[in-house]
Amino acid sequence: MSRYEAVIGLEVHVELKTETKLFCGCSTEFGKEPNTQVCPVCLGLPGATGVLNKKAVELAVKAGLALNCEIGTNTWFDRKNYYYPDLPKGFQISQVFRPIAYKGYLDLELNGKSKRINITRAHLEEDPGKLTHAGGSIITSHCSYVDYNRSGIPLVEIVSEPEIRSGEEAKAYLEKLKAILEYAGVSDVKMEQGSLRCDANVSVRPVGSTVLGTKTEIKNMNSFRAVQRAIDYEVERQIEALMDGGRIIQETRAWDENLGVTVAMRSKENPDYRCFMEHELAPIELKTEWIEDVRATIPELPDARRKRLVEEHGLPVYDAGVITSSLDLAEFFDAALKEYPDAKTVSNWVMGELLRLLNARNLELSEAKITPGGLASLLKLIEKGAISNKMGKEVFEVMFEEGKDPDQIVKEKGLSQISDESQLNRIIAEVIAKNPKSVADFQSGKEKAIGFLVGQVMKATRGQANPGVVNAILREKLAE
Amino acid sequence: MEDRIAAYITRTREKALEQARAVDRQIRNGEKISPLAGIPVAVKDNICTDGILTTAASRMLAGFVPPYSATVVKRLEAAGATLPGKTNLDEFAMGSSTENSAFFTTRNPWDTGRVPGGSSGGSAAAVACGEAVCALGSDTGGSIRLPASFCGVIGFKPTYGAVSRYGLIAFASSLDQIGPFSRDVTDCALLLNAICGHDPLDSTSARFDVPDFTRFLVNDIRGMKIGVPEEYMAEGINSGVREVVVKAIALLESLGASVEYTNLPHTEYALSTYYLIAPAEASSNLARYDGVRYGFRAAKTSDVMDMFMKTRSQGFGAEVKRRIMLGTYALSAGYYDAYYLKALKVRTLIKEDFDRAFEKYDLLVSPVSPTTAFRCGEKTGDPLEMYLSDICTISLNLAGIPGMSIPCGFVEGMPVGLQLMGKHFDEGTLLRAAYTFEQNSDYHRAFPVL
After folding, report:
1. Which pairs with CB-CB distance under 8 Å and at least 24 residues apart come from A328-337?
2. Dist. CA A119–CA B418, nearest whole Å
3. Could you give the CA distance from residue A271 to residue A471 in angstroms, rounded to a whole number?
4. Residue A33: count of CB within 10 angstroms of its CB
5. Which of A90, A436, B90, B122 is 20 to 30 A from A420, comparing alpha carbons?
6. Reduced to 3 states, what is the DSSP secondary structure of residue B285?
7. How far is the C-alpha of B147 from the C-alpha of B118, rounded, in Å?
8. A168 touches chain B (CB under 8 A)
């Protein structure tokens, strides 16, 4: 197997966060009644001509700049002609000949190593409508419904160079891309709502070869994890086919999430889209100053932020990478850090408890009830010794679910930690009296015995004793 | 009258009366009314009218009622014009005679055995026979000027971008332009006043200072420099037509213009360039007629591809299909460079011909068409012969410059049009020359006897 390497390029469609569509004033809001956000332009009625949404151009340029692209000052739209019921004009308005952004890159951190993936182009185009097949699948349904609410929503299609070598790298690329676009504020980048969609071009070739193998295009992947699995499956499938003396057929394949396989959808013999310039729309002429104005609105991006967390706050590179992988998380971290300026501790809680609970509950950070200020208060309670670290985790979970103040939770649950020495002295005396063997063991040099004694004190206080204080008192008493 | 001319696909008598009553009320109330108030202006049936059938003379749109009006229609309504009806055309404006209408052929009021020209034949005929005072047409390769010439009326194709195309059913978007028909130059100027100007709904509509076009209605062309492109007077131009045009040019000269013969050297490539570019754009513009959303849908189809194919093969007429196939071919992989791209380059050369000519001349003049109106059926068997009717008009669309047809005489009782060609956005010079010519001739007063 190692005699082959995978060659993977990704095509990512990202919906731009505009209020209205690319060429008309219809709303882009998600999840409305079918065909309620339509007009003559996005329905392709005879005679209706569209006008370019300036905000979409701005966001596309912003996306391009955030991805280190060059920006075309003289670009235009082209028509991509093909017939499909979801395509109201019989052509898609896209940028074929001159993309608005090109020659960019993004850097991945993977297993401690950095890798640059070049971006060929990022161009503006309109989304087609959406088909729903009555009675389930496209094969079994007796009719299909078309919803044109999505028709004309602005997209940027971001095409990578075929420099990705594994499913893992593909996933890392998508995570990075998502983070950058999210930071830049150009898109919601939600795969489940379709505001980010990914197709993968996959081929394999003998290691050392510079010739590209025959590629397949993989569609229907609904999560980053699915992209990784689909690519890994496809790479293995292609290598096996070649090793068996077979050959790869150029085709479009669909990922079947349940079966964990890719299946042939249709052969793809380079369809002829008969692309040519869109004359209904004026060309897009951008002034350099305007592009610079847009550049100035781009906030700190993930790489810069990660660097800042490492250099200014001394976080390990890995922690900083995880925290900056999503804007919400990074904002949460910074806000908590402001009130509790111990970066490593905040990071441990964010990376540990917060992410654990988010993953376990399959929630977005915005859906969790805990606030950065809440986390900071909790950490202060622990620092004071009012509660133990372990109790803290219990309190954190309640904060996560209910959003209450940590003091209140501690009070309600009766969780406060006993650090008061006079109170502890009494209990410790009892424990010593009841366990003469362990006391003797410790005094004869068995260090381990102290752990048992601490445990007994914790048990007697139902875990509320401060274990550090208990340990200290015990040692003091047993040394007497 | 309409029984013999068949200018209209849809007549909107009730709407016209209602609009006229509104104008009457304004007059009674002593309100100020616009010059077009109450004037019947017919509209070509490829221009959308809210709530009124708009067919583009195609079976494909035989029942299509748009939910919106073209910008020009709204502007006419705002000016108080009334709408007598929607006029016949060649299907999707592809043709030179209205014989490609899916419904019927409009007749030339000067001889009902002859065609009115096309594609805006219904609009030209309606104005010629008095069924409308003015009309709107669209011009992609001569579709306003040719029928104006054949029917003996004024037809004006403004500069590309001067009039909004929003609501005009697209044939070839980079060439299409809406313009007026009228019986005299004054009405033409008034209509231009109403329809010209930037439209935020059409991104190709130009931002320019729209003049009051009536200020160009001046009976004086002294010192005007006029060029006559030799290529437009060469063989292929009917000798009778040439004679009438030469006489008209002599009149202009006698009125104080200087006249010189000149050259537009790439003229010979215009027709082939046009017949690559226009069909290429059309093949894409007409892709939306697939039976999914509106218009005609074929019955008894097995799946979606079958529905697309049957709908389009049954819904479109022969000439439309011919051009869709031509255009599809010209854009296909492997042919794009050799045909479409090459045509774009020649288009630039043709534009440059005009640019050079207009460095020397204020105006170019020529015949509108090599012949007068031909007989119904005379050219239907030979598409190329039909295409040649537009040999003098198509270059203007390729260059985007304004062009005008004015009545300048008769050959065997059939009207001949003189074509005036101007610089981009220099409609004024055309109007001035046309007005001066009109004040010093009486061809515009001739009326067909029906």
Report:
1. A328/A364, A328/A365, A328/A366, A329/A354, A329/A355, A329/A365, A330/A302, A330/A305, A332/A365, A332/A372, A333/A309, A333/A372, A334/A372, A335/A371, A335/A372, A335/A373, A336/A372, A336/A373, A336/A375, A336/A376, A336/A379, A337/A313
2. 57
3. 75
4. 8
5. A436
6. helix
7. 5
8. no
**Distance, C-alpha A5 to centroid of its chain:** 27
Domain boundaries along the sequence of chain A = 4-291, 300-413, 421-479
Separation CA B187–CA B154 (nearest Å): 9
- Residue A197 amino acid letter: R
Q: What is the pLDDT of residues A146-167, one digit of tens each?
A: 999 999 999 999 999 999 999 9
* pLDDT for residue A474: 85
Domains and CATH numbers, chain B: 2-269+344-445 (3.90.1300.10)
Which residue in chain B is spatially nearest to A144 when comparing CA positions? B304
Tens-digit pLDDT profile for residues B66-117: 999 999 999 999 999 999 999 999 999 999 999 999 999 999 999 999 999 9
Q: Which of B101, B83, B85 is nearest to B20 (CA)?
A: B83
Given a cut of 50, is residue B187 above it in pLDDT? yes
Please list every residue in chain A whose beta carbon sits closer than 8 Å to the beta carbon of residue B55.
none
Residues B42 and B52: their CA atoms lie apart, in Å, by 13
pLDDT in tens, A389-420: 888 898 999 999 998 888 888 878 777 777 67
Interface of A with B in 279-298 (CB under 8 A): 279-282
Residue B50 at interface with chain A, using a CB cutoff of 8 Å: no
Does residue B398 belong to the interface with chain A, where contact is any CB pair within 8 Å? no
What is the pLDDT confidence band of residue A450, given thresholds at 50, 70 and 90?
Answer: confident
- Quick check: A266 and B305 in contact, CB under 8 A? no
- In this prediction, residue A1 carries a pLDDT of 46
CB contacts of B286 in chain A (<8 Å) are 90
Rounded average pLDDT over B193-206: 97
Is A49's CB within 8 Å of B70's CB? Answer: no
Query: Tokens 């008969």 — which residue?
Result: A274
Report yes or no on whether pTM surpasses 0.95.
no
How far is the C-alpha of A205 from the C-alpha of A242, rounded, in Å?
Answer: 9
Q: For residues A70 and A101, is the Cβ–Cβ distance under 8 A?
A: yes
Instruction: For residue A137, name the pLDDT band (cuts at 50, 70, 90).
Output: low
Buried b (16+ CB within 10 A) or exposed e, A210-238: eeebebbbbbbbeebebbbbbbbbbbebb
| CA–CA min distance B334, chain A (Å) | 10
Distance, CA of A421 to CA of A473 (rounded, Å): 8
- Residue B44 appears among annotated catalytic residues: yes
Q: Is B205 a catalytic residue?
A: no
Name residue, tokens 């992988």. A325
Q: If you search the block for the tokens 């492109």, which residue do you land on?
A: B229
Q: Does A97 touch chain B (CB under 8 A)?
A: no
In the β-sheet with A196-206, what is the strand arrangement from edge to edge? A70-71, A101-110, A113-126, A154-160, A4-15, A196-206, A216-219, A251-256, A261-267
Share of chain A above pLDDT 70, in %: 98
Q: In a mutagenesis test of the B interface, which of A45, A76, A142 is the best target, namely the one with the most B β-carbons within 10 Å?
A: A45
Confidence (pLDDT) at A48: 96
Judged on CB neighbours under 10 Å (0-12, 13-18, 19+), B14 is: exposed
Pick A421-479's CATH classification: 1.10.10.410, 2.60.120.260, 2.30.30.140, 1.10.287.1770.
Answer: 1.10.10.410
Each as own residue / partner, the long-range contacts of residues A405-411 (CB below 8 Å, 24 or more positions apart, any chain) are A405/A374, A405/A377, A406/A374, A406/A377, A406/A378, A406/A381, A407/A377, A407/A381, A410/A381, A410/A386
Please say if B97 is a catalytic residue. no
